[in-house]
Amino acid sequence: MRHWLIANTRAGNGSRGAGFWKPRLERAGITSLQVRDLAEDDWETTLSADDIVLVAGGDGSVNRAARACHACGAILGVLPSGTANDFARNLGLPEDPDALCELVARAPIARVDVGWLDDQLFLNVVHVGLGTLPATQASPRLKRWLGRFSYAAVLPQLRRLGLMRGFQARLEIDHEILEERWLSLAIASGAFFGGGSKVPGACARDGHLTLVVVRPRPWWRLLWTFMVTRLLGHTPQDDDSVLVRRPSTCRIAMHHGHRVTADGESLGHFRELTLRVEPAALRVIVGPC
Question: Any idea where the DAGKc domain is (predicted)?
């Protein structure tokens, strides 16, 4: 068994790279580390099923490491070092770095679901519409200053960007069909996305996707809904701006091409999307959740 430390030096504010994590992992008892930068590609081709891949980065970095682990059966360990770190929340990992490294040394393993957008793996969420703004409009400086709240800070830009009317789309959710105008579509594999927003009743190990759709509403009302959801862990009662479904498959057909992001990374423009869940597909180090 080999321990790999894969660090993305550009994640978050750059303070939690290999130099931050390596001495803490060594103090926890992991003394033989294969250290690589995420940008290198040789580590992906040399992984084996017995290896443990510890990735220090944000959700986009974790996504890349997860694809490599999924392909060969290796174990994924997450060292949260980005802006949102939603997949780490799904795993119930401790926030204290030293406690996390001690947990990693014990290596409690579980299997979690992964989502698929065609042949693209995702761990947290696929976004269309409003949810793509943090990836495409929030600057690295804004993310560093505001952290997870940069996801709310872009909401007032909706009117300037001409997105208040939303877009027309047909949703086929298992055996249900919904067709109207939407401001945002979010299809999540786990329980957290958007920097800590929690989807009630969802879990990364339940064998379902969670579809959260937002209807066009004034930006101040959506900001209020966002903040209340963050505080309470669920959407406000009697608020028809948000609809939640929990399918195993989902097909989205839009009248025009729209930008799509997965785990905070832009995938380009699509008119049709087919999404599904692959239950218990990835071995990961988990906390006491």
Answer: 36-121
Quickly state the pLDDT bin for 264 (edges 50, 70, 90).
confident
- Packing angle between helix 97-106 and helix 18-27, nearest 10 degrees? 60
Residue 222 identity: L
**Mean pLDDT along residues 240-266:** 90
CATH number at residue 17: 3.40.50.10330
Tell me the whole-structure pTM to 2 decimals.
Answer: 0.83
Q: What percent of the chain has pLDDT over 90?
A: 55
CB 199 within 8 A of CB 188: yes
Identify whether 88 is part of a domain: yes
In this structure, the answer to whether residues 194 and 71 fall within a common structural domain is no
Q: Which two tokens stand for residue 35?
A: 């250290």
Q: What is the dihedral of CA 246, 251, 254, 257, to 10 degrees?
A: 110
Q: Under DSSP, is residue 233 helix (H, G, I), strand (E, B) or coil?
A: coil
User: Do 226 and 152 form a contact (C-beta atoms < 8 A)?
Assistant: yes
